[in-house]
Amino acid sequence: MESPDKSCETSPRSSVSDMSNIVNNYHDVVTESPDKSFETSSRSSLSDMSNISSNYHDVVTDRNMEFIWWIANRLTSYDEEMHKEILEDFFTDDAKYIHPALTIEGKYNIRKVFRVWISLNKDEPEVTNIVYDGHTAIISLIQNLRPRLFPLVHLQVPATTTLHFRDSPEGPMIYSHQDSWTLEGIVQSVPLLGWWYDHVVRNILGSMLTSAGGFLHTANQTTGYLQFRAEEVQKLSNDIIEKSSNDIQQRSREMTTKAQNLVDQAKTTVEKRVATAREEVDRMRQMMRPGGYYGGALSTKAITGTD
Hints:
By secondary structure, the chain is α+β, with helices and mostly antiparallel strands. It has a domain at about 5-190: Nuclear Transport Factor 2, Chain: A (Roll), CATH 3.10.450.50. Helix content is about 65%, strand content about 15%. It has 8 helices and 6 strands. It has helices at about 5-10, 15-40, 45-75, 80-90, 105-120, 185-190, 190-290, 295-305; strands at about 90-100, 100-105, 125-130, 135-145, 155-165, 175-180. It has a 6-stranded mixed beta sheet, sandwiched between helices. Strand 5 and strand 6 (about 175-180) form a beta hairpin. Helix 2 runs antiparallel to helix 3 (about 45-75). The longest helix is centred in the C-terminal third of the chain and has 98 residues, at about 190-290. The protein starts with 6 loop residues before the first helix and ends with a helix. The model is unreliable at about 1-20, about 30-40 and about 300-305 (pLDDT under 50). This is SigF-like NTF2-like domain-containing protein.
């Protein structure tokens, strides 16, 4: 897609007054068109009003695209004076420039980086397409990388520039300028590396991912089958346990009864032995008392003095 503003190429050193005229014309369309539409609507039908609104929208859209193409062509130009005019008139003082390799703030610092870049690279980028909604512009371009030290080296890298606008009393101002370079674009811009990436790396990775996908599919199927069989085994086990639960409970009751009987028998035996032991203790106590069998014999011997 070519730029609609061809004057950008024929007069690269024109002043910013051209841009001011564009902005003023845009302002005139915005302020005057509603009044004209109102006067016309009083004398025309609803269809005429629709046509006027459509024409007004087309005029505004054309002015917006003319404005953004004007900005893009001068912003990507290697003419330092033209770049300086854009920075001075359409960038805020705290504008931020974001690049894959760096981030800076302030339009004066942006101008310094621009000087370094044009001193290293020889060819200007080419703007291919622009999408603009009034606040954000997405500029598609081709970066022509041709180092001044190695002019025979020429790489064309697809890139994207995003401009964010902010409304101000002077008109729309750029507060953020972001350049994006994709890894795929950089790789494909190198002749041998690009061919190797397209025909070798991508095919190998595709085959590897396909094989991995087949393996995962088989593993998922096997896991599902094993889980299904495990559920069946669990169900059969539950059925067997449920069927044998009555026998187990009956045997458990019988064993409990036998154990209780043994406990009762042991308890009875222990009680009998304890009672017998108590009787023996009582009998021994009676025998050991004075006047008892052993006590009387000891007393008689003590009185007579005989052995």
